[in-house]
Amino acid sequence: MQRINIFIFVLSACLLFNSCDTPLNEYVPKNDTEKDITALLNTYLDARNNGDIKRLTSTFADNGQYIAGNGARWTKSKIAESDAEWWLQYGKVKLLNPEFNINGNQATVSSTGKWGVAYKTPHIASLVKQEGNWLIVKVKTGN
User: How many domains does the chain have?
Assistant: First the structure.
């Protein structure tokens, strides 16, 4: 009975403080492919969170697109022409609890996007490996 109480206490503490969440920048990749993809997504996050449009654009494939939770669609060329303020207006985002699905030169990383203190939404990144580099084909946030 005491073991059950300890387990419930630890689980409750994790849920209460979100300490069970693993941010992408703290995720330990299981292999070199996950390491490469994690590096790309960390670059994407850093560029997005700092309004670095040129660097953000570089993380997308030529046919890449970003689909925001409000339904706005951004192609790579539209991202390149966008104003940093559009990306910064929603605050800094963290990706939590990444789950990798890798199949050859294609991959999907499902995670939870966390904006600010409490707002969380699904964040799904579809990627492709082109000429030895991973690039984002599509990012979809929201439900």
Answer: 1
